[in-house]
Amino acid sequence: QVRLVESGGGLVQAGGSVRLSCAASGLTVSWYAMGWFRQAPEKEREFVAVISRNGGNIAYADSVKGRFTISRDNAKNTVYLQMNSLKPEDTAVYFCAADQDTILPTTSQAYDYWGQGTQVTVSS
């Protein structure tokens, strides 16, 4: 059974930093493209970042480029999202997801497995 469990969310002031973790079980993260998405209240889920299976390709949404960094620890079977210089508009539930078929999937429909999400709230 595949499980993706996000952690690390919480309340942070604008300008602060948070690191999210996505611990996987039932799959090997190095065999999947691993992505992060977010969904704010009354908004659609949007792409944030993705790392390819071999780790050689990474993509970010324009809104987070230069502030967020996605990484992966194969030994821990965990994916991370380091978020710096946070803004109130980054407030959302953050989800990690896994896709086996696409090199750098940026649409939610491409992903096969999803976590339950972790809330990040950025206060101004």
Features:
124 residues; mainly beta; seven-stranded mixed beta sheet; four-stranded antiparallel beta sheet; 11 strands; 0% helix; globular
What oligomerization state is this entry in?
A: single chain
What would the average pLDDT be, to the nearest integer? Answer: 97
Biggest sheet record: 7 strands, mixed
Distance between the termini: 40 Å
User: Helical stretch count?
Assistant: 0
The rounded Rg comes to: 13 Å
Structure class? mainly beta
Question: Strand-residue fraction?
Answer: over 45%
Low-confidence stretches: none
- H/E order of the elements? EEEEEEEEEEE
Helix content: under 10%
Using DSSP, what is the number of strands? 11
Task: Kindly describe this structure.
The termini are far apart. With 124 residues, this protein is mainly β. Strand 5 (46-51) and strand 6 (58-60) form a beta hairpin. The protein has strands at residues 3-7, 10-13, 18-25, 33-39, 46-51, 58-60, 68-73, 78-83, 92-99, 113-114, 118-123. The model has no long low-confidence stretch (mean pLDDT 97). The radius of gyration is 13 Å and the shape is globular. The chain is built from no helices and eleven strands.
